[in-house]
Amino acid sequence: MDLGLNGKRALVLASSRGLGLGVAEAIAAEGAMVMITGRDEGRLQAAVDAINARGAGRAHFVVSDLGDQATPALLEDAVGKALGGLDILVNNTGGPPPGPMAGADIAVVQRQFEMMVLRVMDVTARLLPAMREQRWGRVLTIASSGVIQPIPNLGLSNAIRAALVGWSKSMANEVAGDGVTFNMLLPGRIETDRLKELDAANAKRSGRSLEEVADMARSQIPVGRYGMVEEFASVAAFLVSDRASYLNGGMIRCDGGAIKSV
């Protein structure tokens, strides 16, 4: 299936590794120009070199930190210079430290909220007007299955990411008439460095071995395994494509059926 992404211009936040990088690679494989972001210049350069070596879409990078309030303006400027505009925005952020919500340090909550919610809103607000003017755009926000079914010991993530649900749905209602869609993609347990870190934290907290923790988690997933980054990224590439023009305001699960609700 031709997704209609050839020549499109995409910005993928927090994309030097993990899900963000996987999504950037999938979009570039369809012929799009992508800009990836992150704090590690060496990792970004290596990722860009690998994408460009494949010879489909072209990749660029900008070193940036979503913890810095100057980052949205930096990204807006970088997109204009490197891509000449934008068609696709994939909002993605790192996750907060694991732990219960009860007793959470309010200063930590505030810092994480600024990075995971306010920066996303700011970046989107800066880049959205041009999409509306050109009458085509895709905004995809990666969150977590925890916004539907809260995940034990990920209290901050559950709470903070939930704010993006109301925001994304509100935006979807307001701008779809201008040809811009807003959707959310919710990963379950996808095999990434972040997942390994969370499994390790759960093992330490519970006194179980890492393999016991992973086996228990897999047993709760109907497909019986963790997902692969490539599987998740393929869904993302479709959601930002021309083919997904009638998908708007949704929360799409990519979790192997782990969420128990209908």
Automatic annotation (TrEMBL):
Full protein name: 3-oxoacyl-[acyl-carrier protein] reductase
Signal peptide stretch: none
Stated family: Belongs to the short-chain dehydrogenases/reductases (SDR) family.
PANTHER family documented for this protein: 3-OXOACYL-(ACYL-CARRIER-PROTEIN) REDUCTASE (PTHR42879), NADPH-DEPENDENT REDUCTASE BACG (PTHR42879:SF6)
Pfam family, any one: adh_short_C2
